[in-house]
Amino acid sequence: MGGKSMMMVILILLLGFVGVRVVKAARLHDYGDALTKSILFFEGQRSGKLPSTQRMNWRGDSALRDGSDIGMDLVGGYYDAGDNVKFHFPMAFTTTTLAWSILEFGYSMGSDLNHALEALRWSTDYFLKATSKPGMVVAQVGDPISDHTCWERPEDMDTLRTTYVVNQTHPGSEVSAEIAAALAASSMVFKDHDSQYSRWLLDRASKVFDFANNYQGSYNQSIGRGACPFYCDINGYKDELIWGAAWLSKATKDPKYWDYVVKNMATLGGSFSEFGWDSKHSGINILVSPAVMNSSGSPFITNADNFVCSLLPDSPTKSVTYSPGGLMFKPGGSNLQHATALSFLLIVYSRYLHLAKRSVHCGSVVATPSRLINVARSQVDYILGSNPLGMSYMVGYGKKFPQRIHHRGSSMPSKIRYPARIGCHDGNNYMVTSSPNQNALVGAIVGGPDEHDQFLDSRLNVSQSEPTTYMNSPFVGALAYFKGGR
Fold first, then answer.
1. What is the residue-level pLDDT of the chain in tens, covering all 486 positions?
2. Is 406 a catalytic residue?
3. Which of 88, 338, 406, 407 is an active site residue?
4. 37 with 396: CB under 8 angstroms?
5. 200/131 Cα distance (integer angstroms)
6. Which of 18, 139, 307, 339 lies 20 to 30 A from 375 at CA?
7. CA separation (Å) from 411 to 86, 386, 421?
8. Taking a C-beta distance cutoff of 8 angstroms, is the pair 372, 349 a contact?
9. b/e sequence 22-58, b meaning 16+ C-beta within 10 Å
């Protein structure tokens, strides 16, 4: 064989080897497994009487008298994070984004779809209770000061289960409008699964929105220390009102809601690049973008495009930073709440852009729909373990993940293993020990590493090691998308 022929054979073999490596890299993560676990996580956060189908079996019944202080049945719902309080503002955002995830990508969930619907209904059933009395909305259950002084299992709780209510004289437009958005979005999810339940949700959504809009004001003042400093509404409540109207517009097709969105969006301040439990700006723009995608000069499209440009690593108008390992960062704690929510929006908008045959222009940088997907995939893969530490930030996924998460029930022996009551301060040893948590809160996404890709696996490192429902809910949609092979 001549020299050139030999070189050609070697080149072909090398290319073949590289090709194999590329294929392996593309399949580096099992998105289906991660999706299953991300939905399972919600069972670990359940409050109330657990069903016979409960799979996270180290959890037990808890908070079975919630609402009794005001003569209401408020059993159920979710604990938002590693404590035992039911904060309705972030719980409602969790519900809205979980519903949106199912609406966009439920077709890719396979057998996990039923579990996602169960997770969603656990929340909507509860919000129907919380909005069952006209002229008021329950904004929270559980005194956070009392709760945070104890390290105890939810099954043992003896802290104050104060019910915080907003009403016509003490309004709470942000929490009420977010609940309206959650119920409206969920009504769309259940339309093909339980039409009567769907109509019930939508009817309640419109009533709760009217309450939020007619009696405007922030729950910061109305429920005082219940909201602050834990989930203070820093961004104001106008965005939640528009967000609620946008979802009602989508669910009802009633033009009055669209008119509300257009009229009020023109006067809304704040940043187009924010999306989370406290800020709905970029979510609004992307949610309504399909309706105005071909409208010349639409401010919704301009803002949605600017949102994309605020995230691209090479965009001249980028407003986030990236760690050396490639994780996007925004100011504040629990950074993965930003990486999960913003990645979800990128994926959703990329689909809308693809259907409209559009790209986004960030100065001289052109962002095609596939470019948005690549940025989102980089964040998803980072969270699942493609990072300098080789650590998955989802509990139970991969070979290396956080073992000492800031979560009371996960850190302590279950009632099955240790039936005796563990009192308020009796659990402190479980908080400070360096031993791994005794129960795996499978699927939980924690706050994540710092801007230098470093992570301290300690319960005392709250901003990095605490999971939250609103980090998982948009991630469900992102994982479902990538599970579909896109």
1. 443 333 333 333 333 333 333 333 345 899 999 999 999 999 999 999 999 999 999 999 999 999 999 999 999 999 999 999 999 999 999 999 999 999 999 999 999 999 999 999 999 999 999 999 999 999 999 999 999 999 999 999 999 999 999 999 999 999 999 999 999 999 999 999 999 999 999 999 999 999 999 999 999 999 988 989 999 999 999 999 999 999 999 999 999 999 999 999 988 887 889 999 999 999 999 999 999 998 888 999 999 999 999 999 999 999 999 999 999 999 888 999 999 999 999 999 999 999 999 999 999 999 999 999 999 999 999 999 999 999 999 999 999 999 999 999 999 999 999 999 999 999 999 999 999 999 999 999 999 999 999 999 999 999 999 999 999 999 999 999 999 976
2. yes
3. 406
4. yes
5. 12
6. 18
7. 19, 27, 15
8. yes
9. eeeeeeebebbbbbbbbbbbbbbbbbbebeeeeebeb
**Crossing angle (nearest 10°) for helices 469-483 and 336-356:** 40
Contact 102, 119 (CB under 8 A): no
Under DSSP, the state recorded for 108 is: G
Q: What one-letter code names the amino acid at 373?
A: I
With residue 409 as reference, give the H or E element that holds it: helix 408-411
State the CB neighbour count (10 A cutoff) for residue 313. 13
Give the helix/strand (H/E) hosting 346.
helix 336-356
Q: Which of 50, 79, 219, 202 is nearest to 144 (CA)?
A: 79
Residue 26 CB contacts under 8 Å (≥ 6 apart), including other chains: none
Distance CA 135, CA 166 (A): 9
Q: Measured between alpha carbons, how far is 392 from 475 in angstroms, rounded to an integer?
A: 14
E strands along 95-218, which residues? 136-141, 163-167
User: Strand, helix or coil at 283?
Assistant: helix
> What tokens does 332 get?
């504040």
Q: Which residues, 6 or more positions from 34, have their beta carbon under 8 angstroms from its beta carbon? A: 384, 394, 397, 479
Tokens describing residue 191: 């339309």
Judge whether 120 and 98 are in contact, CB under 8 Å. Answer: yes
- Alpha carbon 177 to its chain centroid, in Å, reads 17
Q: What are phi and psi of 162, to 5 degrees?
A: -60, 135
